[in-house]
Write a sequence for this structure.
C-alpha cells in the first residue's frame, strides 16, 4: 500500500508508530506550554533554555560513566539537562535584574555560552571512549531510530504534567502576561509565576530532547502558539488550539518522515508546523491577510456608499459610475439617479450621523476610534449610549432630508 | 522593615530638614497609611521617607509635578515596585495581609492592547484571587462582572476585544475590573489622563458612588484644575511629603508653590481658585 | 615551541581572533539597539544560506557561501518584518518562527543532498572546524617571510582577514552615524541619516561576519561572539568608543585563551585529546562576561528602566 497511508494509520512498523505517537504527544504539550511564554512576549527564552540543556547532558553522562554506569540512562541525562537549563534561566534573570544589560542580551549570552560549554563537554566525551558518545549528538537534532517504548512513556507522562500545570496556572499566568502590575497589586508573586512559566517550558524542552533535539524543540514551543493566535481572541482558547496544532504537526510530520527514506523527523515536523503558520497568516478569518484584503475592499465599497448617500442628502448629483452602481444595487436610487424612499431615509440618517461624528471628533482626540467611521458601522457600535446622548445634546433636533 | 502588629505606636521618624514629624500610627480607621517609605533607583531617591495618612470614606488625590514620585509612591505602596524602606498599612493591617480589601487601577499605558482577551474577560480577572486556581467562575460571578460593566456604561461591549476600544473605554474597563473586586479601598493611577470628557464624567460618577457607599478612593491626579471639584483630601508630593490635609485648607498657593518649585504662574493659581491666592 | 606552534596554533588563533573581532564589532550595536536576538536568528539561518549556495553552485567556495549567508540573512529579516506587520506579532516570536523554520529547511536539504564530496555536515556547521585550519607548510617563525610557505596558508585565514577589515572599515566610516542613530534614532532621522538602511546594514554586516566566522566556530556559537564581548565591554565603560575598544580586547582574549585552553588544557590536566576550540572560546567569553557582571565598574543600571518594575 501507499507508504504514506500506511504510516498515517500506524501500519508502517512499530518504530514508526511509536515515533508518530510520541511526536504527537510532544507537539501537543509543547504547543500548549509555549502559549504563555508567547503571550508574555518572552518567546526566545525557549531558545536559551534549550541550548542550556546541552552542558547538562554532557555532565550527566560523564558523572554516570564515572559512577560505573553505561552513561546513557535517559532519566539521568534528562535530569542533568534540567539542572543546567534551570541554572541558565536563573542566570538570565540575574543578569537582567542586576546589571545594565537588557533581557535580550542576557538571553543571547546564556544561549551562546552554555551551548559552547556543552560542545566542549561533547568533545571530551568523544575522546573518552569513542563508542560511548553515540547518541549524545542525537540530542542536537533529535533521533528517532531505536526509539523505545520507555521514551514514548517519558514523553506521555512528562507532557501530561506540563499540560496539566499550564491549565492549572492559566489564570495567574494570563493575568501576569496581560497586566503584570495589576497582578502584583492583587497579590500574585509575579516573579514566581514567571519562573513557573519558564519552568514548564524547560520541562517540555527536556522531554523533547531525544525526539526532536534541542534546536528544533524551540520551534515546537513557539510556532503553534503564534499560529493559534490567528484563530481566536481569547487566551484560554489559544492554549488548546496551539496544542492541537502542535500535536497535529508532530503526528503528520512523523508520518511523512516515515513514509520516505532520508527525511529526518525533526525538521519535517517543524516544516509542517511552519506550513500551518503560513496558512493561518494568510487565511485565518479575522486576523489573516486575505481577510484583511477583503475587509479593505468592503471598506472601499462602504466609503463610496457613504459618499453617495451624503451627496443625496445634500442634493448633489452623483458623478462616479461605481458609486451609482453600488447605490442602485442596494435599491437606494432608481436607474435615473433619483433617490428612492429608502434611499432618502438612509441619506437622512447618514447626514445626522455625519454631524454626530463631527462632534465626536471634537470631543475625542482619538483618531483610531473616529477613523472607524465608514458609513456602515452604526455609531452605536463605536460609542456608548451616554456618549451618543452627549453628541445629540450638542446637536439639537433632527432635520429631514428634502425630497421630491 | 516590618514592625510587629502589636505595637500601635511607631517611633517618630526624622525628616530630612531636622523637623521631627510624628509618623502615622496605623489606626484601623485609615484605609491607607504609609510610613517612612523610600524608593530609590541606583542611589537616587524617587520617593524619600514619605508618611501619609489617608482619611476613610473620602476621595483623596496625590498631586505633584511630573517625575515627583506620585505613581512611584502608589506602586511602591502596593509592592508593584520594591521599596527600600517603610511600612504600608491598610485599615490597620500590613498591606500583605489586607490585599483583598484593595483594588488597583493602573495606568493604561502598561498593557498590551493586542492581547487576546475580551472586555468581559478583563473584568473577570478581578475575580481571579477570589476564585483561586481551580474554582469555577460561577454564574453569580459572571453576573457580577456584567453589573460592573453596566456601572461604567460598557456592558454592550462585553464581547469585544480590548484593542478595539478607545482610550476612555479602556479606562472604564479597568475601572470595572477594580469594581468587580468589591474592595474597600480603590487606588487609581492617573485615571483621567488622556480620556474624553464623557468618560471622565462617567468615572467620577462611579467614584463618588463608591464614596457614598462608604469606600475610600485614593487617586494619583494630574489635573490641578479639577482637584477642588472632585476631591476631599489632598496629598502633595515632590520626592518628599510637602503637605497633606483637606482640600479646603491644604490646597493653597503656598503649598502648591512649594510643591511645584515656584513654577506655577500666578494667573494659573487664580484659575484654580486656590485658597489664599491673591 | 616554535615550529610546532607556528604549524598548528598560529593560524587557528589568528583566524579565531579575527572571527571574534569581526563578530564583536557589529555586536556592539546590536546590543545597544536591543537587537541582540537578531544575532541568534542570524546564527541559525547561516546554515540554510550556505546549503542553498552549495545547491546552486555545486561547490563550497568562499564567495557563493558569503552571498548565500548574506542572502539568507536578508530573507530572514524581510520575512521577520513581514510577519510582524502582517500578523501583528511581537518581534521575538516572529524571529523564532522564521529562523527555526529556515534552520529546519536547511537541515532537511542538507540531509537529502549528496555532500560527501565536500565537508559540510551538520555537526561541522554547528561546531566549527578551527583545529583543522593548520599551516602544515610552515617550518617555524621564519616561514612568515617565505612566499612559498605563505602561499600555503589556509585560505580561510585570508577570507576572515578580508571580512574583518571590511567590518572594521565600515565601523570607522559610518562611526558618526552609528553613534548618533544608536543613541537617538528619531534625532538621527531628523538629521537626515537613513536610519532604517543603517539598521539593515548592521544586520547584514553581522551576517557576513557570521558566515566568515562559520569556519572557525560554527554557526551557533557565533551568537556568543556577537554578544559576550560587547556585553562585557558595556559594563566597563560609559563611552561608546571605549566600549568598542574593550569589546575588541575581550574578543581577542576569548579567542586566544579559548584556543589555548582547548588545545593545551587537557594536556595540562593529563588527558591526551584536545577539546572543541569553538566551545572553549565561547566558554572563555562567558567567563569574561561573568567577571564583568560581578566586578565591572559600570555594571549597575542607572536611571529608571522598566526592568525595575515587574
Amino acid at each position: 500500500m501507499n507508504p504514506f497511508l500506511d504510516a498515517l494509520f500506524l501500519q508502517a512498523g512499530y518504530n514508526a508508530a511509536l515515533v508518530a505517537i510520541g511526536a504527537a504527544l510532544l507537539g501537543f504539550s509543547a504547543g500548549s506550554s509555549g502559549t504563555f511564554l508567547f503571550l508574555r512576549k518572552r518567546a526566545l527564552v525557549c531558545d536559551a533554555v534549550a541550548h542550556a540543556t546541552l552542558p547538562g547532558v554532557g555532565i550527566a553522562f560523564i558523572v554516570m560513566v564515572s559512577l560505573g554506569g553505561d552513561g546513557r540512562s535517559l532519566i539521568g541525562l534528562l535530569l542533568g539537562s534540567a539542572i543546567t537549563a534551570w541554572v541558565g534561566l536563573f542566570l538570565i534573570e540575574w543578569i537582567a535584574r542586576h546589571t545594565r544589560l537588557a533581557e535580550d542580551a542576557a538571553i543571547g549570552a546564556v544561549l551562546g555560552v552554555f551551548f559552547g560549554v556543552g560542545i566542549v563537554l561533547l568533545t571530551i566525551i568523544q575522546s573518552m571512549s569513542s563508542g560511548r558518545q553515540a547518541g549524545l549528538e542525537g540530542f542536537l537534532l533529535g533521533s528517532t531510530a531505536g526509539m523505545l517504548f520507555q521514551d514514548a512513556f517519558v514523553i506521555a507522562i512528562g507532557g501530561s504534567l506540563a499540560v496539566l500545570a499550564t491549565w492549572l496556572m492559566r489564570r495567574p499566568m494570563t493575568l501576569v502576561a496581560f497586566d503584570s502590575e495589576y497582578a502584583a497589586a492583587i497579590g500574585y508573586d509575579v516573579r514566581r509565576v514567571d519562573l513557573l512559566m519558564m519552568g514548564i517550558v524547560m520541562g517540555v524542552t527536556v522531554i523533547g530532547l531525544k525526539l526532536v533535539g534541542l534546536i528544533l524543540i524551540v520551534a515546537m514551543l513557539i510556532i503553534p502558539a503564534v499560529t493559534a493566535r490567528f484563530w481566536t481572541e481569547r487566551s484560554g482558547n489559544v492554549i488548546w488550539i496551539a496544542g492541537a496544532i502542535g500535536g497535529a504537526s508532530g503526528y503528520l510530520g512523523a508520518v511523512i518522515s516515515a513514509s520516505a527514506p532520508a527525511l529526518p523527523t525533526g525538521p519535517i515536523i517543524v516544516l509542517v508546523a511552519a506550513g500551518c503558520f503560513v496558512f493561518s497568516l494568510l487565511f485565518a478569518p479575522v486576523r489573516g491577510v486575505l481577510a484583511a484584503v477583503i475587509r479593505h475592499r468592503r471598506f472601499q465599497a462602504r466609503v463610496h456608499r457613504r459618499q453617495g448617500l451624503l451627496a443625496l442628502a445634500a442634493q448633489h448629483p452623483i458623478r462616479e459610475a461605481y458609486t451609482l452602481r453600488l447605490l442602485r444595487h442596494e435599491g437606494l436610487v432608481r436607474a435615473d439617479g433619483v433617490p428612492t424612499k429608502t434611499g432618502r431615509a438612509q441619506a437622512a440618517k447618514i447626514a445626522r450621523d455625519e454631524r454626530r461624528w463631527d462632534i465626536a471628533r471634537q470631543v475625542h482626540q482619538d483618531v483610531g476610534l473616529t477613523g472607524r467611521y465608514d458609513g456602515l458601522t452604526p455609531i452605536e457600535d463605536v460609542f456608548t449610549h451616554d456618549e451618543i446622548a452627549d453628541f445629540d445634546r450638542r446637536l439639537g433636533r433632527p432635520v429631514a432630508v428634502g425630497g421630491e | 522593615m516590618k514592625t510587629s502588629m502589636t505595637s500601635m505606636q511607631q517611633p517618630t521618624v526624622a525628616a530630612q530638614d531636622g523637623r521631627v514629624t510624628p509618623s502615622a500610627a496605623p489606626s484601623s480607621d485609615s484605609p491607607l497609611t504609609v510610613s517612612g517609605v523610600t524608593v530609590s533607583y541606583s542611589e537616587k531617591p524617587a520617593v524619600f521617607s514619605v508618611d501619609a495618612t489617608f482619611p476613610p470614606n473620602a476621595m483623596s488625590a496625590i498631586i505633584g509635578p511630573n517625575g515627583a514620585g506620585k505613581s512611584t509612591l502608589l506602586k511602591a505602596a502596593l509592592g508593584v515596585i520594591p521599596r527600600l524602606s517603610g511600612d504600608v498599612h491598610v485599615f490597620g493591617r500590613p498591606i500583605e495581609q489586607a490585599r483583598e480589601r484593595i483594588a488597583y487601577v493602573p495606568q493604561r499605558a502598561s498593557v498590551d492592547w493586542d492581547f487576546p482577551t475580551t472586555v468581559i474577560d478583563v473584568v473577570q480577572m478581578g475575580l481571579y484571587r477570589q476564585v483561586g486556581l481551580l474554582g469555577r467562575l460561577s454564574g453569580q460571578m459572571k453576573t457580577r462582572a456584567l453589573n460592573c460593566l453596566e456601572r461604567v456604561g460598557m456592558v454592550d461591549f462585553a464581547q469585544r476585544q480590548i484593542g478595539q476600544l478607545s482610550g476612555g473605554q479602556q479606562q472604564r474597563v479597568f475601572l470595572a475590573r477594580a469594581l468587580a473586586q468589591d474592595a474597600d479601598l480603590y487606588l487609581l493611577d492617573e485615571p483621567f489622563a488622556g480620556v474624553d470628557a464623557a468618560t471622565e464624567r462617567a468615572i467620577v460618577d462611579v467614584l463618588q458612588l463608591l464614596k457614598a457607599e462608604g469606600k475610600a478612593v485614593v487617586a494619583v491626579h494630574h489635573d490641578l484644575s479639577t482637584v477642588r471639584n472632585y476631591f476631599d483630601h489632598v496629598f502633595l508630593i515632590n520626592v518628599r511629603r510637602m503637605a497633606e490635609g483637606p482640600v479646603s485648607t491644604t490646597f493653597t498657593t503656598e503649598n502648591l508653590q512649594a510643591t511645584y518649585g515656584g513654577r506655577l504662574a500666578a494667573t494659573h493659581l487664580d484659575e484654580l481658585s486656590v485658597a489664599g491666592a491673591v | 615551541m616554535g615550529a610546532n606552534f607556528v604549524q598548528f596554533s598560529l593560524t587557528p588563533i589568528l583566524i579565531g581572533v579575527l572571527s571574534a573581532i569581526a563578530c564583536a564589532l557589529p555586536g556592539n550595536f546590536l546590543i545597544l539597539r536591543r537587537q541582540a536576538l537578531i544575532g541568534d536568528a542570524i546564527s541559525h539561518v547561516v546554515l540554510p544560506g550556505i546549503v542553498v549556495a552549495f545547491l546552486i553552485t555545486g561547490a563550497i567556495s568562499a564567495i557563493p557561501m558569503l552571498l548565500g549567508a548574506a542572502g539568507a540573512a536578508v530573507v530572514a529579516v524581510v520575512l521577520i518584518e513581514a510577519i510582524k506587520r502582517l500578523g501583528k506579532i511581537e518581534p521575538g516570536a516572529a524571529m523564532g518562527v522564521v529562523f527555526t523554520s529556515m534552520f529546519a529547511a536547511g537541515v532537511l536539504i542538507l540531509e537529502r543532498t549528496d555532500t560527501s564530496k565536500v565537508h559540510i555536515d551538520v555537526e561541522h556547521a554547528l561546531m566549527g572546524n578551527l583545529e583543522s585550519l593548520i599551516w602544515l607548510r610552515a617550518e617555524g617563525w621564519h616561514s612568515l617571510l617565505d612566499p612559498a610557505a605563505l602561499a600555503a596558508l589556509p585560505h580561510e585565514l585570508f577570507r576572515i582577514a578580508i571580512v574583518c577589515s571590511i567590518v572594521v572599515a565600515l565601523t570607522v566610516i559610518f562611526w558618526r552615524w552609528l553613534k548618533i542613530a544608536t543613541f537617538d534614532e528619531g534625532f538621527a532621522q531628523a538629521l537626515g541619516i537613513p536610519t532604517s538602511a543603517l539598521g539593515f546594514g548592521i544586520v547584514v554586516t553581522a551576517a557576513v561576519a557570521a558566515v566568515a566566522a562559520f569556519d572557525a566556530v560554527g554557526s551557533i556559537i557565533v551568537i556568543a561572539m556577537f554578544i559576550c564581548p560587547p556585553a562585557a565591554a558595556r559594563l566597563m565603560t560609559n563611552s561608546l568608543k571605549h566600549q568598542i575598544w574593550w569589546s575588541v580586547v575581550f574578543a581577542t582574549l576569548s579567542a586566544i585563551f579559548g584556543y589555548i585552553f582547548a588545545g593545551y588544557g587537557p594536556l595540562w590536566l593529563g588527558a591526551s585529546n584536545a577539546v572543541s576550540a569553538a566551545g572553549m572560546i565561547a566558554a572563555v567569553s562567558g567567563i569574561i562576561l561573568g567577571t564583568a557582571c560581578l566586578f565591572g565598574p559600570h555594571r549597575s543600571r542607572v536611571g529608571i528602566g522598566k526592568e525595575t518594575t515587574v
Observations:
- The longest helix of chain B spans residues 197-212.
- Confidence is low (pLDDT under 50) at residues 1-24 of chain B.
- The two ends of chain B are 45 Å apart (CA to CA).
